[in-house]
Write a structure and sequence with these properties.
- The protein is α+β, with helices and mostly antiparallel strands.
- The chain folds into 3 domains: 36 residues; 182 residues; 126 residues, no CATH class.
- The protein has 7 helices and 23 strands.
- Strands 2-10-11-12-16-15-18-19-23 form a 9-stranded mixed beta sheet.
- Strand 18 and strand 19 form a beta hairpin.
Length: 362
């Protein structure tokens, strides 16, 4: 006669198999849905494969108290929170909850409360998201640096000093800001915020800041909290890249990260950047090209914030400058790069940029 334990094992095995089969069939159906990107019936709203994640500037750590996204079908999706200090970089992906359905309807609203450590201030907000715009971005997707069509996988919620909130749709090779809000200060008791931890708020804040890297703490002491930057970072200008070579060369790929937290990684022939497009100011660039012998080279470029902003503001003060190019000029030996902003009427050299050139391969 079988023991109760043996019978339990058999029942559990059958249950696990049934759950696995259901998950596998559901996964196959999800993949099919992703490929055609259509609802199963005419009455069912479209769903997309995305997850929420959080972001904060590296200098300004935050901790989320509560964060919930309301979706078109009435479902509520939690943003990762609870005892996690966030300072991963503006517009960067953070943590995610791998729970619930892979495919979700379009996000419509956001409720958010967090603690800004450097300000020792709680902020809260409740606002509508541009659901129609977000849906259009999901449906359109983008062409990645390999020439393949992709779409966005994350909704990033970014929180910065002064109560600044930005929301991005993020994909591996492209992200775009879809919303920006300013929220209000609030008060949350430490008993509610940190029920099983430090109850002295000042001590809690100071202990978190103390864990920041020394260079960041020193910079905070020297410059203080720069609340105004998050709004100025969002300003855009009509410009595009222009690639020049002292000898024969062929541009291949361009990876650009902007100060507003968005980014793209494209082939240089991508039609999205072929014309003068309203874009934020670039923060970092990764550029790759081939020489006449098909040898491949790359360059990592990091702009000086003050210099690049001053150059953009100066060149666009002249309203006659309607075609502004950021010129990347490669020298004869594929070992150095000169950078400048150029228009019909003036050229501004960018001398403080950090540039590293190196040989690479496909």
């Amino acid at each position: 006669m079988e023991s109760n334990y043996s019978i339990w094992i058999k029942k559990t095995t059958v249950l696990v198999f049934v759950l696995f089969l259901g998950t596998t069939l559901g996964s196959c159906q999800s993949k099919k849905t992703k490929q055609i990107n259509q609802p199963e019936t005419k009455n069912e709203m479209k769903k997309f494969e995305w997850r929420p994640t959080e972001s904060a500037p590296k200098k300004y750590p935050i901790e989320i108290y509560q964060g919930v996204i309301g979706c078109e079908d009435g479902s509520l999706i939690k943003i990762p929170s609870g005892g996690r200090t966030v300072h991963n970089g503006w517009g960067e992906t953070g943590s995610t909850y791998v729970v619930g359905d892979d495919f979700k309807s379009v996000p419509q609203n956001l409720k958010l409360t967090w603690l800004s450590f450097t300000e020792n201030t709680f902020y809260t907000g409740d606002f509508e998201l541009p659901a129609d715009d977000i849906k259009a971005y999901f449906e359109k997707g983008y062409t990645d640096h390999l020439g393949k069509h992709e779409t966005y996988s994350n909704l990033i919620i970014g929180m910065a000093p002064g109560g600044s909130v930005s929301v991005w749709l993020f994909g591996a090779d492209k992200s775009v800001e879809v919303a920006h809000f300013m929220v209000a200060k609030t008060e949350i008791s430490m008993k509610d915020f940190n029920p099983s931890g430090i109850q002295d708020r000042k001590k809690y804040v100071e202990s978190t800041i103390d864990y920041l890297p020394e260079n960041i703490k020193q910079e905070l002491q020297e410059t203080g909290i720069q609340k105004e930057n998050w709004e100025s970072y969002r300003k855009s200008f009509p410009w595009k890249f222009n690639y020049q070579f002292k000898t024969t060369g062929t541009p291949a790929e361009i990876r650009t990260k902007f100060f507003d937290g968005s980014h793209y990684y494209y082939q240089t022939t991508n039609p999205e950047i072929a014309d003068y497009t309203e874009l934020p100011v670039p923060k970092e660039i990764g550029f790759k090209w081939y020489d006449k012998d098909k040898n491949k080279f790359g360059a990592d470029i990091e702009f000086d914030e003050q210099e690049i902003y001053q150059a953009f503001e100066t060149i666009f003060k002249n309203i006659a400058n309607k075609t502004v190019n950021l010129i990347i000029q490669v020298d004869t030996y594929n070992s150095e790069i000169d950078l400048s902003l150029d228009s019909e009427n003036e050229t501004i050299a960018l001398k403080k940029t950090k540039i590293k050139v190196y040989p690479t391969s496909d």
